[in-house]
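Reopening this one. Same input as before:
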Amino acid sequence: MNNKEENTNSYKVYIENIVPSWNKCICFSRNKENRPLQFVVVFLLCTLLQLPETVHSQDIHFTQFFTNPLILSPASTGNFQGNIRGGVNYKYQWPWATDQQVFNYHTQNAYADISFLQDRVKRGWMGLGVNFLNDEAGDGRLRYMRFGGSVAWHQSFERENRYILSLGFQANYFSKTADFEKYYYNNQWVEDEGFNRLLNNFENPNQTRITGFDMGFGVNFDAKPTNNVRLSSTFAMLHLNKPNDQFYNRSNNQLGYRFTGSLSGDFDISRSTILKTDVYYTYQKKAWETVFGAMVGIKSGEAYRKENNSIFWIGSYFRMIDAWSPIVGYSYKQCRLLINYDVIISKLSRTGKLNGGLEISLVLVAGWKHKQNEQKWACPKF
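Same output, byte for byte:
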């Protein structure tokens, strides 16, 4: 085998169920200089996910998992200090990659939820919420959209509402599409010429658009043992019905059960300083992820008047074996803006071209009609 043949074959990475076919190499770029990088990226992703022969469908993730309460757990619906809450999240993966047509990954999420019945039910209330998510990946415009609703019940166990148990359920409608003609395949490779898209790619997907329904449930527990400490834990089991998520008629690419859990703590270190800590873990079809970190909030202005204070946030989060993410933000009353940037620390950083992802979140909370003193409630502020 000559060197050219060796180089060509070294580019062949066999991927099942990502975009079609599955004894065939999918190439992502017109730029010859980037081809080795792209195949290294795909290979490393498959290795990190510990998948033996096929790459199964996996969920979207955010570093700021705590700003996505309805995605984190259905039981978080309506669990906040207010009557109505809204939030948006935006993630731009690899924003400064050299080939933006290839590394074009955008994720948007928006949600809103309400809490009610606080004054009608003894030590309990209900939450209702809606959530929308849109994700686009790569030059083949692999797009995933999801819209759904969630409901939760929150019950306190004692008069001061310092310990709250929450149960929640969600149902979602999803759509997944891809443009197969915009991908490149190994049988379109012409030696010494490159890719020729006029050649037949021999791809015959059964469908280019998938739709379905998805369900999940969650359990949360919140505690406020003192006025200076608030603790929160979440657990969720998602994809209860294991919907099919593929373009080919196969039975091995259902969305696997996804288990998530998190622990968070807010600590008033002093009258002007807050410490927020978070740990998150999720597992799905042999793929796992752990994120942990902390932020320090410094009150400014009328720091000691709770209803008027403004807080500057700074901190750092880590996604194990993958990325370090510094984070900064600002909150005023019941509005909070956070910005983080994922700095890759895994093997992907060696390419020098894949340099992380930008993530922005904005959360707004309005209203508070509880007769009880909100200082005593264990539910999160945001």
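So the earlier flakiness isn't reproducible anymore. For the record, The CA atoms of residues 93 and 357 lie 4 Å apart.
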